[in-house]
Amino acid sequence: MTTVAEPRTWTLTFVAPAPWLNANKRYKRRPTEEIRTWRNSTTQYAAAGKLPRGLTRIAVDAEVRFPADGRQRDAHNYFPTIKACVDGLVDYGLIPNDHREHLAATSIVEGESIPKRRFQPPGEITLTIREVTHA
User: Fold this and answer.
1) Distances (CA, A) of 125 to 26, 49, 67, 90
2) CA-CA distance, 70 to 96, in Å (whole number)?
3) Cβ proximity of 16 and 124 under 8 Å
4) Which residues does residue 129 pair with via DSSP β-bridges, in sequence order?
5) What is the distance, to the nearest Å, from the Cα of residue 13 to the centroid of all Cα atoms in its chain?
6) 20 to 30 Å CA-CA from 42: which of 70, 81, 82, 96?
7) Which helix (H) or strand (E) holds 125?
């Protein structure tokens, strides 16, 4: 009898360290500083979470949560933010690069709203990383 092991999974949850990167926004310049902040924050949270390094293949599920302000958002518009986070995982060494050989899939959903507070970050994100052991 062959036993199939469950894929390993890791979860990182952190507050938005910079404004969200949005595919609908018309930037006058590339938001380099914001990209770098998201990327570096993800690298730091991966290190703090003691994620492994050198995995062969992963899938990333992202859940974005915004303050309860009554606005409707399309989660898929925040994919540039997820791209910066995946790049941060690559910088950390979780996978060698984000080519399809190493990144099997990414998904993004909007989660429940977080309470709106004065002087709060613009939301929070949860990255669920699954090791993919088959092609």
Assistant:
1) 23, 15, 12, 18
2) 40
3) yes
4) 10, 60
5) 9
6) 70
7) strand 124-131
Q: Tell me the residue ranges of DSSP E strands in 66-123.
A: 103-110
Give the CA dihedral 23, 29, 117, 112, nearest 10 degrees: 10
| Model confidence at 14: pLDDT above 80 | yes
Residue 107: pLDDT band with limits 50, 70, 90 = very high
Q: Confidence class of residue 28 from pLDDT cuts 50, 70 and 90?
A: low
In this predicted structure, the answer to whether residue 27 has a pLDDT above a threshold of 70 is no
What tokens appear for 22 in the block? 């949005």
Q: What is the pLDDT of residue 6?
A: 79
Predicted pLDDT of residue 1: 62
CA 62 to CA 108: how far, in whole Å?
5
Burial 45-69 (b: 16+ CB within 10 A, else e): bbeeeebeeebebbbbbbbbbbbee
Those residues with Cβ within 8 angstroms of residue 40's Cβ, 6 or more apart along the chain or in another chain:
88, 91
Q: What is the pTM of this model?
A: 0.90
Contact 8, 49 (CB under 8 A): no
